[in-house]
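Issue 218. Parser rejects a valid record. Input:
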Amino acid sequence: MSIQRLLAVAAFALASVVTSSAFAHAKLQSSDPQAGSALAVAPKQVRLKFNEALEPAFSKITLAGADNKEIPVTAVAVDKDDPSVMTAQLPALPPGAYRILWSAMTHDSHKMKGEVPFTVK
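Output the parser choked on:
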């Protein structure tokens, strides 16, 4: 194999590795409460775990009821010891359907959002 061909193959391999890591996006790994769960007791806190560290200033949690009205949450924070975790305190919730709505930005400026539905029996 010629040196030029070898360099071309090496350059292609390096570009493939760099490109695949550049397009990797942060995502929600787990939630408490879990998506789709039916709980006998209303949760007092939301805990969301992501696969990357979050930017606290651009990450938030809100809660919506079955009527899509926003329900106030408090103490929304990114964990100082584990910046891939975001939490919020919930008020007392009566039985019903709820959606945790979240938006977040990672340290590499990737924005993401999603929701976690759950019900309280």
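Fixed in the parser; the record now loads. The first helix runs from residue 3 to 22.
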